[in-house]
Structure formats: C-alpha cells, structure tokens
Amino acid sequence: MNRKLTNAVFKIFVWAAMAASFGILLFLISVLFWKGFGAISFDFLFTPSSNFGAEGGIVYQIVGSILLIVFATLIAFPLSLGFAIYKSEYVKSSYVQNITDTLIYGLNGIPSIIFGIFGLIFFVNLLNTGISWFVGSIILAIMILPTIILSTYQAINSIPDSFRENALALGLTKWQLITTTLLPRGLSGAFTGLLIGLSRAIGETAPIMFIATAFSGVTIPVGFFEPVSALPTHILALAQQATNPQALQNAWGTSLVLLLLVLIFSIAALWRRVKFSKIEY
C-alpha cells in the first residue's frame, strides 16, 4: 500500500512539474505573440532601423544575426566532427576519455558572459581586431562546440561494433571506415547538435555585445573586421527606451522574430532527432 501511495504521489508530482513547465512556456510564447504581432509587417522586416531602433525596421539586425550563426557553423561544425570521431575511434585510454569529457562538459558549463570577456581581452585588446562580427562568430562557435561534439559522439558511438568489424574484414582502411560507414551515420547526430547549438547562439547577448555588435549606425558589413547589429543586442537597446511606446512596440516585435528563429531551429532539431531515432542497426 505504501509503495502504491508513493508511486501515485510521484506520478502526480511529475505531471504537475510537466504541466507547470509547459504552462510557463506557453504563457511566455503567448505574451510575445500578443505583444509583438502588431509590430510585424513587411516594412518592419525589410527596412533599416532609425532613431536608435525606436523607428524603422530590423533588416540589418536579421542579417547580422544570420551572418554570425552562419560563420559560427562553418567554424564549429568541422571541428566538432573531427573531435567526435577522434574521441570515438582513436582514444582508447579511459584516462584520456575522462579528460576529454571533463573539458567538454567544463566548456559547456562556462557562463556566456565569460566567453564575451575572453573575446574582448584576447581578440579585441591583445590582437587588436576591434569590434568584429567575425570575432563574434568565433566566440559563438566555441560556445556551441560541446553541444555538437556530444551529439555527434553519441551518434557515432551508438553504431554497433559489428559495422566496424565487418568493414575492416572487407579490407577497408581506418579512414575508409570513417568516411563510408561512421561519418554518414554520425552526421544526423551532428546536425541535431548543430541546430540545438544555433538555437542557443542566435539568442545570446553577452558574448557578442562587447566584441561584435554596435547598437546603431551599422549596415551590412563589407569586411571581416566590422561590427554588425544583431537581434539580441537590438532588443537590449530598445529595452532601455521602454518609456517610448514606439520603441517598446519594436522591442516586442523584435523579440517575436527572435523567438520564431529559435523555434525554427528547435523544431528542426527535434525532427532530426526523431528521424534519427527510427534508424535501426
């Protein structure tokens, strides 16, 4: 009887926690849609901002955010694939495995503001790059590395050893085994991790605020070492003008656009994960 009562209480607690989490998420999304939908228009999405963002649209902020995450992808994705393959196929020592796990999980747990300060000290001050969107992409790439590495590693590690043994028995080299057998099956996990990482990176403010973005007066960059304007920092600038009704309306609209981009990446990652989970070995 006590066991049944304990199970019932635990089940109620789990369902209540799930309902509360879902309710909070639904409330936040509903508020953003309610407040921000009125600001969304063709002009808002495809015209530049003016008067420190209180007027005009967010076209340069959208372009800046996409530019940051595209180059972060180009930097992080091949590095993550290489590290995951090395960790899965070449590292045999449990001691080295523990060290790599510590490094990956430690990097994943670093607060985002620390990445921004590191970029400011190392790139902007020591290397004298100035405020640069490319530096921002490098920092965002470092941030999402652990997510992609872990997702790729789990995907590759889930492949049965019989695949490796059969491939080697057929005379394939280690490199051929990786490129023809492991990598095609590991890419699904890599893409899932990439999409999850990008859904985080595109909404980050602290890592890029000091090193990659300017709050106003920037357009589409023509070089690697120029600032951009991004959606998260634009929201921050508009929030400081909360007494201005037009600026506040634009802030809600920008927040809704950013939320929709995050939802797109998150839903795509979920779709990739569900599709990958149906693969049978």
UniProtKB/TrEMBL annotation:
<feature type="transmembrane region" description="Helical">
    <location>
        <begin position="130"/>
        <end position="150"/>
    </location>
</feature>
<keyword id="KW-1133">Transmembrane helix</keyword>
<feature type="transmembrane region" description="Helical">
    <location>
        <begin position="57"/>
        <end position="81"/>
    </location>
</feature>
<keyword id="KW-0472">Membrane</keyword>
<dbReference type="InterPro" id="IPR005672">
    <property type="entry name" value="Phosphate_PstA"/>
</dbReference>
<dbReference type="GO" id="GO:0005315">
    <property type="term" value="F:phosphate transmembrane transporter activity"/>
</dbReference>
<dbReference type="InterPro" id="IPR000515">
    <property type="entry name" value="MetI-like"/>
</dbReference>
<feature type="transmembrane region" description="Helical">
    <location>
        <begin position="208"/>
        <end position="231"/>
    </location>
</feature>
<feature type="domain" description="ABC transmembrane type-1">
    <location>
        <begin position="62"/>
        <end position="269"/>
    </location>
</feature>
<feature type="transmembrane region" description="Helical">
    <location>
        <begin position="251"/>
        <end position="271"/>
    </location>
</feature>
<dbReference type="GO" id="GO:0005886">
    <property type="term" value="C:plasma membrane"/>
</dbReference>
<dbReference type="Pfam" id="PF00528">
    <property type="entry name" value="BPD_transp_1"/>
</dbReference>
<feature type="transmembrane region" description="Helical">
    <location>
        <begin position="12"/>
        <end position="37"/>
    </location>
</feature>
<comment type="similarity">
    <text>Belongs to the binding-protein-dependent transport system permease family. CysTW subfamily.</text>
</comment>
<feature type="transmembrane region" description="Helical">
    <location>
        <begin position="102"/>
        <end position="124"/>
    </location>
</feature>
<keyword id="KW-1003">Cell membrane</keyword>
<keyword id="KW-0812">Transmembrane</keyword>
<dbReference type="InterPro" id="IPR035906">
    <property type="entry name" value="MetI-like_sf"/>
</dbReference>
<protein>
    <recommendedName>
        <fullName>Phosphate transport system permease protein PstA</fullName>
    </recommendedName>
</protein>
<keyword id="KW-0813">Transport</keyword>
<dbReference type="GO" id="GO:0035435">
    <property type="term" value="P:phosphate ion transmembrane transport"/>
</dbReference>
